[in-house]
């Protein structure tokens, strides 16, 4: 802890993704952004100044050993998330990790083992779960206005071929493996709508390969991959991830069906999110705008967001996930995306990669609570 009794936070991957969190930390009275770590040593001074950090490191383990950090934000490439989280947890340092939690089932097992043994808390930073429309839908589900939810769809359609050449790790870990390699943005909010449920089986198929990379090699990841998920409560979920096809960005498409309601998110710029609820809509065949329900049902945290929250990335998700993390670490509330929730969001995608190389066969999804 700092001399002022604040939670000292270190950020690894600070020059890149990890540098986007200052507004949220600044807004919380119990945090101090203390240290930054990145391999790009020449850019660290500017990043430290930008984030208000007093310490700089190029070696993550050195930061953990030498700096007085109580928590770390892991904003590094995907294959580093689990190894770095484990290093921090072994030292009883709290972890907020970018998605996905891990890149293999064996890594997931190691991460769960470290998290359950540690005195520190692990949280996965699934920021799409904190976007205003998804928060509002969750509230409506919790109030029973959807009845029993039994079907959902999530789509992450984000053409990233150019970004593959800038952040080259993506070419191996996102588009260099077949199946759903980056599905937590789509599945995460849905699993929060389907409370106390988890995916138990998945199957996955792809659309084929139609685009070569700049070297003329086709991406190992098929252009569109669709994963079907069956849950323990027999619900059905369809997830589509496409980071290759030429099309406008549509990274947060969702659909939800319950016995008393239905939701369809906006699918293109200019459209509105629409909802139908049996208890609130007089016209059985008429949608209303989701925003029409904000005044009565939107949770308090989103009612009067600060300017920093609105400007934060991913529709405010980056901001509110940080506040949730700090509140959980300080004991103000339970962690909403702890280690087992992170596994529930990550493991289905990993098993989809097994399914797609086995002709779309259904695969069992491990339950991390049994490990």
Q: How many individual helices?
A: 13
Provide the β-strand percentage band. 15-25%
The tally of strands reads 15
Q: Which residue ranges are poorly predicted, with pLDDT under 50 across at least 5 consecutive positions?
A: none
Average pLDDT, to the nearest integer? 95
Helix content: 25-40%
Can you summarize the main beta sheet? 9 strands, mixed
The SS-based structural class is alpha/beta
Query: Could you spell the SSE succession in H and E letters?
Result: EHEHEHEHEHEHEHHHEEEEEEEHHHHE
Q: Assign an overall shape.
A: globular
Number of domains: 2
Q: What is the second-level CATH architecture of the largest domain?
A: 2-Layer Sandwich
* Global Rg: 20 Å
CATH structural class of the largest domain: Alpha Beta
Question: Under CATH, the topology of the largest domain is which?
Answer: Dihydrodipicolinate Reductase, domain 2
Question: Taking strands numbered 1, 2, ... along the chain, how are they ordered across the largest sheet?
Answer: 14-13-12-11-7-10-9-8-15
Give the CATH superfamily of the largest domain. Dihydrodipicolinate Reductase, domain 2
| Beginning-to-end CA distance, first to last residue | 33 Å
Outline the structure in words.
This protein is an alpha/beta fold and 371 residues long. It has two domains: 7-127, NAD(P)-binding Rossmann-like Domain (Rossmann fold, 3-Layer(aba) Sandwich); 128-304 and 335-364, Dihydrodipicolinate Reductase, domain 2, CATH 3.30.360. The protein is 32% helix and 21% strand. The chain has 13 helices and 15 strands. It has helices at residues 22-27, 44-51, 60-66, 78-90, 105-117, 132-142, 161-166, 169-173, 184-193, 294-297, 307-311, 317-329, 339-356; strands spanning 7-12, 31-37, 55-57, 71-74, 94-97, 122-124, 149-157, 199-206, 225-231, 236-242, 250-258, 261-264, 274-277, 288-289, 363-364. The strands form two sheets. A nine-stranded mixed β-sheet has the order 14-13-12-11-7-10-9-8-15, with helices on one face. Helix 4 (78-90) links the parallel strand 4 and strand 5 (94-97). The two termini are 33 Å apart. The relative contact order is 0.16.
């Amino acid at each position: 802890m700092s001399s002022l009794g604040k939670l000292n936070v270190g950020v690894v991957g600070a020059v890149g993704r990890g540098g986007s969190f200052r507004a949220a930390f600044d807004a919380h009275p119990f945090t101090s952004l203390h240290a930054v770590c990145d391999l790009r040593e020449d850019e660290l001074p500017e990043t430290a100044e930008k984030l208000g950090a007093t310490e700089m490191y190029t070696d993550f383990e050195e930061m953990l050993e030498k700096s007085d950090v109580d928590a770390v934000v892991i904003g590094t490439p995907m294959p580093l998330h689990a190894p770095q989280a484990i290093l921090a947890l072994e030292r009883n340092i709290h972890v907020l990790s970018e998605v996905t939690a891990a890149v293999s089932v064996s890594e997931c097992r190691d991460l769960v083992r470290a998290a359950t043994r540690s005195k520190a808390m692990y949280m996965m930073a699934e920021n799409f779960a904190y976007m205003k429309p998804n928060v509002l839908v969750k509230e409506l589900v919790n109030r029973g206005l959807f009845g029993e939810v039994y079907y959902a769809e999530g789509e992450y359609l984000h053409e990233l071929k150019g970004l593959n050449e800038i952040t080259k790790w993506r070419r191996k870990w996102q588009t260099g493996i077949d199946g759903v390699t980056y599905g937590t943005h789509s599945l995460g909010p849905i699993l929060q709508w389907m409370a106390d449920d988890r995916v138990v089986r998945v199957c996955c198929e792809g659309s084929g390969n139609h685009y070569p990379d700049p070297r003329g090699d086709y991406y190992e990841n098929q252009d569109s991959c669709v994963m079907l998920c069956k849950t323990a409560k027999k619900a059905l979920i369809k997830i589509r991830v496409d980071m290759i096809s030429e099309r406008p960005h549509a990274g947060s498409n969702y659909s939800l069906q319950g016995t008393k309601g239905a939701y369809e998110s906006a699918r293109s710029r200019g459209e509105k999110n629409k909802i139908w609820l049996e208890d609130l809509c007089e016209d059985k065949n008429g949608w209303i705008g989701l925003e029409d329900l904000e005044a009565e049902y939107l949770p308090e945290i989103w009612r009067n967001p600060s300017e920093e929250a609105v400007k934060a990335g991913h529709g405010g998700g980056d901001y509110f996930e940080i506040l949730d993390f700090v509140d959980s670490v300080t004991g103000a509330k339970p962690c909403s995306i702890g280690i087992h929730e992170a596994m529930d969001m990550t493991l289905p995608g990993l098993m989809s990669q097994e399914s797609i190389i086995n002709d779309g066969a259904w695969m069992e999804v491990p339950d991390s609570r049994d490990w």
